[in-house]
Structure formats: C-alpha cells, structure tokens
Amino acid sequence: MNFPCYYKEGFTPQSGIDTITIWLHPAIIDRFDQFHERGINYHSINLRYKRERAFKTNTPIRTNCFVDIQAEAINPNNDILYQVLNILVGLTNDGILSYQQLGQHPSNLMNFYYENFHRLFALDALDFYFDIGDDDMRLLGTPNPNYPTTRYSSCKPSILKAYSRTAKLMQKRNIPNKDIEKIDFPNRIEFSLRRDNCDFLNAYNLTETFEDVFLRYLPFLARKWQNHRYEVVEVEECNLPCAHHLRQVIAAARQRIPQYKNLLPTPPKPIPYKKAKKYEIDYNFIPGFFATL
Question: Domain range for residue 243?
C-alpha cells in the first residue's frame, strides 16, 4: 500500500486526531490475508482484525476487520473525511477491498463510498490528542503496575487518558531514543471516543479540516473533561501558551456547555449477513449485492 505520510512518528502537530478507525463490511473484503491480529505498529495505515465474542459465553461470533489511520497519515489542513475516503479507494485499487465496476473513474468510486458509507463501513473509533510539556501536567490516581506512566478515567471503556509519550515511544522501539529525547512536548492528554462511550461516531462529522472537526466535537470533549479530569490529570493552565486547543477544552468546561447540536448521531452499524425482517431496513443490501456479483 502506498499512502501519503505527512509526519514522522513522534513529530506530529501539537494537537490533532491520533487515530481514526474504520470498520469494514466483510462482504466487500477480498484480501483477508492482509489483515493482522494486532496490526503493524510502525505503519501509519494499519489493517487489523479482532474476533468478536459473545458476552456471556465468550464464544467467537465473528471476525471484524478494521483500518486504523494514524496521525502521521492525516493532513489537518485538508478535509478529514475526504482523506479517509481516499484511503478506502486506495485499498480498493490495491485489490484489498472489492468493487465490481473497477472501470469507473476513482472520483466516482469516492462519491459512491461517500453516499453509501454507512452501508459499507462504520466509524468505530476516533481519538483526539493534545501534547504538552514535562512541567505542564501531573498524573492523578493510582498507577497501574503494567502502565505506570499512564492514567485512565474509570468509565468503561475509558474515554480520557494522560500519559508520557516518551515512555510509550521508547516501548514501541520504532524511533531511536536520541530522537525521542528531542520531542518538544513529551506528555499527552487523549480522548478515546468509542461506540460504547460516544453517541456521535458518525463519519460525516469528519467533514472539513481538523479545526472544523475539533470545534464540532468541542462541547462533547469539554463535558468529558469536566466529568473525568479529576481522576486522571492536573494541568498547569498558566504554562499552556501554545496548547490553544486544550485551553479551549478547559475553558469550555468551565462555562455552560451547549448541546451537541452540530454533531450527527452514531448511525446503526450493519450486522453482516443479517436478513432484515418485515418493516426493517436492510442495511446489508448493498454489500450483499456486491458479494453476489
């Protein structure tokens, strides 16, 4: 796969989107062999699978496939959703995803994916990050012995976390330690939005630039900061002259937080191969149509 990479790992902008995870309908996947159980942690575009298990019996139900788009592959000054669609088109052109009318112009395929996104894909996760200096934050709460430099909010799944980027990057071993030590902002505060803790994982919320997406999600992030920051992290606001996005979150959390009127709600996620009952919407019509051609 040959996708654009705008930044080196560890040297992304001070704030932005860390990860966008897209779920793929299995009916449109041609090359399951390209997906890995844990992904490949040094790739900016990761193809990953995860086995879904029944809650009570822990028996396997299905295998879900995802595309993880990391911050290194995201240009914050361009339309975020367009970049996601461009990656999906690239996966199609590489034969990993199937499309029955490959003779069409790539722009037609992108338009098709845009119009039918919620039939073929799902926004499964969205992570916002804010990097700050060594003296700008203090971790709160009891550390986990396995992750001593990270703190998580108590909600499940955790939506707010703070950690040392330096320790995490050294553990990954993708970057020489001498380069890691040059990072200007070695600590990170991150909001991890998942379908279990956020009702606004809609791909159309990702239209326009990062600045537009951030402002769209700002009231939601402010509410989560207000609810969970005391169990995760304390920040020195007077030391945050450059972290303007984080300061916006903090400032919004101190005021009356508006309703999330600019955020579209999470749409239903297609259940693969499920037949629609009478008066139900058939969310599998389009991927099922592809599978039978």
Answer: 15-259
> Which of 97-111, 168-182, 190-204 is predicted with the least confidence, judged by mean pLDDT?
97-111
Q: Helical H runs in 132-277?
A: 165-172, 177-180, 210-228, 244-254
| Cβ atoms < 10 Å from Cβ of 4 | 15
CA angle 80, 201, 229 (to 5 degrees): 100
Which helix (H) or strand (E) covers residue 164, if one does?
strand 160-164
Distance CA 231, CA 192 (A): 16
Show Cβ contacts of residue 191 under 8 Å, excluding neighbours closer than 6 positions: 127, 128, 129, 159, 160, 221, 224
Supply the pLDDT for residue 188. 94
Provide the strand spans (E) within 54-95. 60-70
Count up the domains in the chain and report the number.
1
Lowest pLDDT segment from 26-30, 183-187, 221-225, 233-237:
233-237
In tens, the pLDDT along 231-254 reads: 999 987 766 667 889 999 999 999
Cα–Cα distance, 130 to 97 (Å, whole number) = 33
**249 found inside a domain:** yes
- Look at residue 54 and tell me if it is in a domain: yes
Q: How would you classify the pairing of strands 233-235 and 187-194?
A: unpaired
Query: Is residue 130 in some structural domain?
Result: yes
User: For the chain, what is the mean pLDDT?
Assistant: 88
Q: How far is CA 43 from CA 2, 3, 6, 103, 174, in A?
A: 11, 10, 13, 29, 10
Q: Is residue 10 part of a domain?
A: no
Q: State the pTM of this model.
A: 0.91
